[in-house]
Design goal:
With about 500 residues, the protein is mainly alpha-helical. About 50% of the residues lie in helices and about 5% in strands. α7 packs antiparallel against α13, α13 packs across α16 and α14 runs antiparallel to α15.
Length: about 500
């Protein structure tokens, strides 16, 4: 017997905020058969969506736009529940909109107002505006009963794993755990974005490869092996093959007679500097606060920050006179070097996953969320930016079998993969350093693997110095209960100098 279509339960949904993401959600819900009411503080956004609806052919449900928020809320009357999807800036804007609609909510409606029986479900949405239209990766959390009511609808909307057909959505846990997982997704994404940009630069400036050749290489990487089914590598290949045309993209960009659209793009990521993208920063803040080492993600983020203020960078460049990337010297076999780079990229991608997943695991333990780590991999199998089929196949089985996993390197298959790709990563960093390639995330990954698996760290000397000037105390090597011992202050202090 077929299960009931979830659109029969919720015949209408209200979308608050119809910018790039909210508008795509509106179209998707409409195509699923839901009637959609939309409201936005910017009237132009409402007009854009309703004008699109008038000309669309594949709309099943009716789309209605509202300028008056009370009329918007009232339009959802008559159903079993009022269901709202908020797609607006985090923080105060959501609170302000809630104040406006709260008087028209009743017990059972789906939004935050526990005192009057109204439920809130936080939903992390991954994949950008294109996936919001065609099926995103979803990480919902909050009240279990409320989520049970809407889960069939989310399952219908979510991206589907091409391997199994399963929806890329699962209840993450209570409270804001779903948004936390989405935040960490974006931290992992930041690491991977930098690694791939560094690989492109390495091939172009270091190995003298043209855009089409690099695009072909990325396509080959994406078709088989450890980097197969990787979203960022796939779109990277497409970007590298996109040339200017007389008509451009139809929206005023990419117009010309040849040349590459990529060369129209300045080396300037501003989304961190202007605070329109906060999640990578929050991931780093959380990793530091929760004592989880994530240097690949951090190094990637700091290069982005430096890139954003190009005006200062231009002046600093004149003062510093740093060398620009040069061709690699004495490369006897370019194909062999490209293969090493592929392994280095894989090692850094996998390390980015390890760092992010370890942060989720630590937060889950700290907050009592009891997150099923296997579910994190399931929701990232499609519809999201960090989709990477081989890595998902590697991680999901062991994570689904364990109730807790604090360190991804404890998984035999993961440690083996990182160990096997280490030499290639080291060679890439060494040769790249000689010729001044930009490699912050690749270099950070190399050091990460060394000190995560090292037993003679220079922190021995650091601890002695801290004991010298601050009486911070230390543990002794080879002493039971101290080596390795718990993470706590040692019992020993040497009076290096009498105060």
């Amino acid at each position: 017997m077929l299960s009931e279509d979830p659109t029969n339960k919720f015949k209408r949904i209200g979308v608050v905020g119809v910018g790039s993401m909210g508008s795509m959600m509106t179209f998707a819900f409409s195509e699923m058969g839901l009637d959609v009411s939309v409201w936005d503080v910017e009237k132009a956004n409402v007009d854009k969506v309703t004008n699109w609806a008038k000309s669309a052919n594949d709309v099943k449900g009716k789309i209605e736009g509202f300028y008056d928020i009370k009329k918007f809320t009232k339009s959802l009357e008559g159903g079993e529940r009022k269901l709202f999807m908020f797609s607006i800036t985090h923080g105060d804007p959501a609170d302000q909109v809630l104040k406006l609609i709260k008087p028209d909510l009743k017990s059972g409606d789906i939004k935050e107002c526990a005192a009057i029986g109204v439920y809130w479900i936080g939903v992390g949405v991954s994949g950008g505006y294109q996936s919001a239209r065609r099926g995103p990766s979803l990480s919902p959390s909050g009240d279990a009963k409320a989520l049970q009511m809407v889960m069939p609808l989310l399952q219908k909307y979510a991206a589907k794993d091409p391997k199994t057909g399963k929806p890329c959505v699962a209840r993450i846990g209570p409270g804001g755990s779903g948004h936390f997982v989405k935040m960490v997704h974006n931290g992992i994404e930041g690491g991977m974005l930098s690694v791939l940009a560094e690989a492109w630069s390495y091939m172009h400036y270091g190995l003298g490869m043209g855009y089409d050749e690099i695009g072909d290489t990325f396509a080959k990487w994406n078709s088989a092996g450890e980097l197969r089914g990787n979203f960022l590598i796939k779109i990277g290949s497409e970007i590298l093959k996109t040339k200017r045309t007389p008509q451009g993209d139809g929206h005023g960009e990419g117009i010309g007679n040849g040349g590459y659209v990529l060369d129209d793009v300045l080396d300037k990521v501003v989304q961190d500097d202007d605070d329109t993208e906060g999640t990578p920063l929050w991931s780093l803040m959380e990793s530091a606060a929760r004592h989880v080492s994530s240097p690949t993600l951090a190094a990637a983020h700091y290069m982005r920050i430096a890139s954003g203020n190009r005006k200062e960078r231009v002046t600093a460049a004149q003062k510093l006179k740093m060398p620009t990337p040069q061709p690699l010297k004495d490369v006897q076999n370019k194909n062999a070097m490209v293969e090493k780079l592929r392994k280095a990229v894989y090692s850094s991608f996998l390390s980015s996953f390890c760092q992010g997943l370890e942060l989720i695991s630590r937060a889950s333990e700290d907050e009592g969320w009891n997150i099923d780590m296997g579910n994190c991999i399931q929701i990232w199998r499609a519809g999201c930016i960090i989709q990477s089929d081989y890595i998902a196949d590697l991680l999901q089985p062991p994570l689904s079998a364990k109730t807790t996993m604090s360190n991804m390197k404890f998984i035999d298959a993961v440690s083996k993969e990182l160990r096997n790709s280490f030499d290639a990563l080291k060679d890439i960093v060494i040769e790249g350093t000689k010729t001044d390639q930009y490699m912050p995330a690749l270099s950070a990954t190399l050091d990460y693997l060394k000190y995560e698996g090292g037993l003679v760290l220079p922190t021995k000397f650091m601890e002695a110095q801290m004991d010298y000037f601050g009486a911070h105390c230390y543990n002794k090597p080879g002493v039971a209960g101290e080596d390795p011992g718990p993470v706590m202050k040692g019992p020993h202090h040497y009076e290096w100098k009498v105060a």
